[in-house]
Specification:
This protein has a domain of 33 residues. The chain has 1 helix and 2 strands, in the order ββα.
Length: 58
């Protein structure tokens, strides 16, 4: 009962369909300010949506 129903928030589930926490970042390529769904860490490049498409390899 209640396991498959949507509605009540049991809190803290990383698989919830709620809004993601966004963090401000500066693109490592073009220098444009953007937001990303993870906390940027020092030493790792962060790309805006446009530059990310250029770096993504298929």
């Amino acid at each position: 009962m209640g396991f498959g129903q949507r509605g009540g928030d049991r809190g803290g589930s990383r698989f919830s369909s709620g809004p993601r926490e966004m963090h401000k970042a500066t693109c490592s390529d073009c220098g444009k300010e953007c937001t990303v769904p993870f906390k940027p860490s020092d030493g790792k490049p962060v790309y805006c949506r446009d530059c990310y498409q250029n770096h993504k390899k298929f």
